[in-house]
Amino acid sequence: MRKNSWFLLALLPLAILFLGAPAFAQVTYPTVNLGFKTTDNPTEVVSALKLVLTLTVLTLAPAILIMMTGFTRIIIVLSFLRQAMGVQQMPPNQLLVGLALFLTFFVMGPAFDEMNKNSIQPYMSGKISQDVALEQGLAPLRRFMFSQTREADLALFVKLSRVERPKTRADVPTMVLVPAFVISELKTAFQIGFIIFLPFLVIDIVAASVLMAMGMMMLPPIVISLPFKIMLFVLVDGWGLLIGSMVKSFG
């Protein structure tokens, strides 16, 4: 499946809704009833449990996206940028989250394609079982997390979990890998944020020194420094440099 197919799948329900509205008006709509009833058939119980597990996974999908991809690093760095510039709510939170999501899809594109090819499509066609699909689907995410996780953070959570010391990466449980990956992402994001703050801090210091030398104590330095911060960020193509450097940091 090509990369654009993810967007086509997302737009498919809207296309069916608007383009097929006249046809839908002439047909009867099916109804879905959810409830509990007694049964002597174990197969029906298993199907009900699978449905509950599927709904649970869908509910936890946003948390999985945040904790097991590069979303954490990206959104924190973008928040640091807005804080360093002192622009408060510009860009707005919805825009930052949306940009972080699309950058996450861009960074995780190869891993998502591999998951779709080796796990989702074979499982939907009935070629592999659910357990095999889950194992093959986790493999690309585990490789990505291992590539971004520091050895010290991984060793910390292996020690805290009190599991047997793993001999290879394959022996590391996913429940140990995920928090180690998140801690490493937080540390990397804060390091990038520190570098982002430095040039804007210099501008704030210069503006405060000039105002103090001129005796303008009542004028907040942010009023003078903010236009210079925006001008500096635009002149050096700040968005291109920041996004390019952040995406390359996942390489």
Task: Give a quick set of tags describing it.
251 residues; mainly alpha; 11 helices; 0% strand; elongated; disordered N terminus
Question: What is this structure, in a nutshell?
Answer:
By secondary structure, the chain is mostly helical. The protein contains 11 helices and no strands. Helix content is 75%, strand content 0%.
Protein model, in words:
Helix 4 runs antiparallel to helix 5. The chain is mainly α and 251 residues long. The radius of gyration is 25 Å and the shape is elongated. The N terminus is likely disordered.
Summarize the SSE layout with pairings.
Elements: H1 5-19, H2 21-24, H3 42-68, H4 71-85, H5 93-107, H6 109-124, H7 130-148, H8 151-161, H9 174-213, H10 221-235, H11 238-248
Helix pairs in contact: 4-5, 4-9, 6-7, 7-9, 8-9, 9-10
Tell me the total number of β-strands.
0
Ends: how far apart? Answer: 23 Å
Order of helices and strands: HHHHHHHHHHH
Percent of sequence in beta strands:
under 5%
Query: What general form does the structure show?
Result: elongated
User: What number is the mean pLDDT?
Assistant: 76
Q: What is the radius of gyration?
A: 25 Å
Q: What low-confidence regions span 5 or more consecutive residues with pLDDT below 50? A: 1-27
Largest sheet geometry: none
Give the helix level as a range of percent: over 70%
